[in-house]
Amino acid sequence: MVSVRDTSARPVDTLLVPVDVSGLVPGNEIFGVQATLAIGSPGVTIFGVETSGTLSAGSSALYNSTTSKLAIAFTSPATSNGILIYLKVAVSGSPGSTYTISMTGLQLNEGSPTATADNGSLYIRYVYIQPHAPTGVVLGDTLVFSVTGNPVLPLTWSSSAPSIGSIDANGRFIALTQGFVRVRVVDGEGKSDSSSAFSVNPTTLRSLTITIPDTSQVQTLEIGIPVRVSDVTGLGITSAQFTITYNTAYLQYVSSTAAGTMTVSWNAPTVNPSVPGTVQYALAGTTELSGSGPLIFARFLVKAAPLSPSPVNLSNVQFNEGIEAILDNGIFTPLPAPLITVVPGRFSALKGETVPVVSTIGGTGPYAYASSNPVVATVNSGTGLLTVLTRGPVRILVTDGQGFPGSSDTIRTYDFVASLPDTGFLKGDSIDIPLMIGTTTGLNITSYQFNVGYDTAVVAFRGVVSNGSLSEGYAIDVRDTSGVLRIAGAGASPLAGAGRLMSLRFLAQPGAENDDFSYLNISNFQFNEPGSLTPAALPVSGRVGIVVPSFARSFIFDGLGDRVRVTDAAPLNPSAIPSAYQISGNAITLEAWVYLIGLPGVNAEYVIAARGATSTFGVDPWFSYALRVENSTGSPRFNFLLSTGTAGEIFGATADTVSVQTGRWYHIAGTYDGTTARLYVEGELKSAQVSGGMQIGSGSIGFYIGGTTYGYFKGLIDEVRLWNVSRDQTQIQTAKDAALLGTESGLAGYWPLDSTYVSGSDVLTPDRTVNHNDLAVQFDARMAAFPHGSTVQFAPTNLSIAPAAVGGGYALTETAYNALLLTDGWPVATINVTQSPAGMTLAGDSIHWTPIASQFGRFPIVASLTNSVGSIDDTVYVFVEAIRTFGNQVSVDITHRGKFGAFGGFDKGVRFNGKNGLYAGDFSLVDRNNAKYAGGLYATTNSFRPVTGFTDIPSRFNGFTAFSTSFTDEWETGSRIGVRVFQVAHVKQTAPDDRYTIIEYRVVNESGSPIDDIFAQMSADFDIGVLTNNVGGYDSTLGLAYSFENGGATNSAYYGFQLLSHAASGAAVIEIGQDPSFIRSTANLTSFPAI
Questions:
Q1: Residue 604 included in any domain
Q2: pLDDT tens sequence across 632-670
Q3: Residue 77: how many CB atoms within 10 A of its CB?
Q4: pTM of the predicted model, to two decimals?
Q5: 405 and 539 share a domain?
Q6: Residue 394 lies in a domain
Q7: CA 404, CA 397: separation in Å to the nearest integer?
Q8: Which CATH number covers residue 88?
Q9: Distance between CA atoms of 688 and 680, rounded to whole angstroms?
Q10: Distance of CA 657 to CAs 230, 376, 639, 660, 681, Å?
Q11: Which candidate, 1041, 856, 1072, 1070, places its Cα nearest to that of 947?
Q12: Strand 416-419 to strand 537-540: parallel, antiparallel, or no bridges (unpaired)?
């Protein structure tokens, strides 16, 4: 056997590897050897042979390194066993590797004797330092290195930079300063190894954290989710890699961006979203990161998925290809898509009519509208205006600017109206109540049936009257069962035209009393046989009542905001027909009885009854039509005012010859016939003015009695009547002292102001016509037992404050305050003040006061009010504020009561470059668990009470000035949360920091028990430029609520709030006419996290 001996070597060694021969027996002689040598892989090379000291010594031995052939020719035969020859071997392979040296084609003496080859192995001895690539080493760390492989003692350790890290004879390394260093080891036979260069880092590496925050977004919208990192200053971070995993049922990857991140100056990120549910990132740059913040923003589309939370996780995170970090994964919560509701002007309409969209609630504009049934009605895509084509059900569909859908409730459309009026009759009388229908021409109606329900305790049915009606000649069958009339009629000729279908005769029941009434409910109206071509009627029910003989009541208005009204957008009776009072064109009559207990001052007015012409009272054109007491000359006069709806085009009639006095009744009537406006007082013509053919504008904001948003009437008003015809003097004189039934021809609205009823949360006084435009009774307006013509006497009921200059019930420290004390009794009551604040003086009913600096808060004024009818004691309050103003480019007034901005009309809240931005702002708190409030924009209850005045303090912001104040919520002790609030305001005078103000609030619980669920809110009334052009919104990414003047013609600046210390949990933009209490409603906070 010829064998290559197993051996070992160090890397880069050169050695002799013995080849042995064994198994020779006497008689065997070797004259020659030939074989092919091979090594299985690079790393070991045979480069020759050596014969000295071997059986081949003195013989010819050759090795061809090209062919790997070995040949030995002996000069004398070899006959013994031993080392045949040495192979010269060079080692360059990998430490720890084993290489095989094999022989093939072995022959002795060209074949005899035979021999077998035994391969040998060569193992490369080594040493390997561990850890080889240390990571996460920070200042002060101790690291113990060791050696694996085939070390030969002793070991010698060294550091490439002893000042950065030292190492002792046992391999114990100590990190001394920041920097990069290597560790080297050499063993006893010279083998060596070095670690990779590693860094000694600041101690912040220990807390290195990469975070995906918790986020939320509305379904179908996009969201940018940040990947954030903690402070990396000094860590030498120049690369990062990580993977985001997410649930594809919730999110769809869209894009990524480094804009606005710490890595914006690095190379463009490498992003791989190819595997669904993952996004892989690799980022690198030449600039080391410092500070903390976002590394990347991953943008996703939120799917219309379940609303439950879903994790968004990080994995495979490495910085600088070796530094790991703490993972802080996030939760994504999809929010429901907004519920979008279209509110139409009404839910029933006739063929050919239009129905406007009053409002679209929810979603974001612009909105696009469509019809659910274009055969029944078309819808203007831009405005939502519905135009009825034929009978049937239809809805107004809407899509908002984000693509969210919504709709109105079903609108029912009809061919014509079938209605019973509201009417009344005296106890013991009978009455024929007409059932009126619209035009039936061309509908081929030859039969009908319907039901009418009534109250048998109030009225008794006595039959149908068809003479002179559309049904004359028809066979009519009537069945009366327990208060339900079932009426059917049929005839040979189709109904034609419009008018009275028939009359229903009722008799008052003997037990019915005055003011008792019965509803007359029409139902199940059907014409001809049922089918798609069957005409449809819109049923309008009525009621019949037992009326009080003559007149018994009127309404009292105190001149301080009292009024009764109905609006176009929100009629309160579901059967209301607002178009009845929306009179335009060339014919109108408006009349009323009035009793004045006060007179308007110079350049002031009292509104008796009116329809507004524009959405903002006080802006020309003021009214479509109005009956007023005006005082533009210093002498109060009755006036009938009309407008075309265009600014400056006002016409009407004024009774210059009538001296208006308090303490007596007047009947006032204004008429217009297309050419002349006339004003009648007590039925006598007092003024006639030719208009030149002007037309009455239709107006837009409802019908008001007693005042609009100003011009509040002080006195009594009775029997307001609105006609869509111009009545002549005889008609006015004949009817002014008589009660009406409400069914008179041309009568568009009849408000006797002699009764009220409750509907939901509203108190209403009825319109006695079929138009049902009942009026809401607002503020302190009330019914009184003084019909026109009666003697008016009533005791005072309350004390109030009216502004003689500014403020009303609100005053300023160190500022002159003048106001009037008012009461409502008649004859005029005397006011005897028994308690008032120190320093206040009284002159008659006038009060004068300049509160000193320490007089802030709420101060009572107590007075006795007396007239010939009675007396009361009452209390009113003056709220005294202190306002601190910053006079720089941003002008901010901050009061004591949690307000930033004006309250009570003193000044504007925020002005920028001298232009008005914010009128009034408010800090408020909501204790959701206990439904308690503190603060509130324009709130006079649940407000804050000032505790300390303003104190200048050092600002914690460089270059800013600051002052502090504090207040509590103890005005209303019964509903108090129990907190004290400390307010600090900071402002800077120089750019660019003069464009904002920082306001801090610290809320201290003084209630004595935990408050677990509290919300802080900021609310504001922005009056930017032209306030009716103001629009606003909320940027959820920035947490910024903002407002601006649409178009910016008057003020191009934007104004807003941004919470700096907490994430904003929600926002609402309240439009004119909406309820500002929305922002304090616990119902709207259910999805918000508490602070």
A1: yes
A2: 999 999 999 999 988 888 999 999 989 999 999 999 999
A3: 11
A4: 0.50
A5: no
A6: yes
A7: 11
A8: 2.60.40.680
A9: 9
A10: 84, 57, 11, 9, 10
A11: 856
A12: parallel
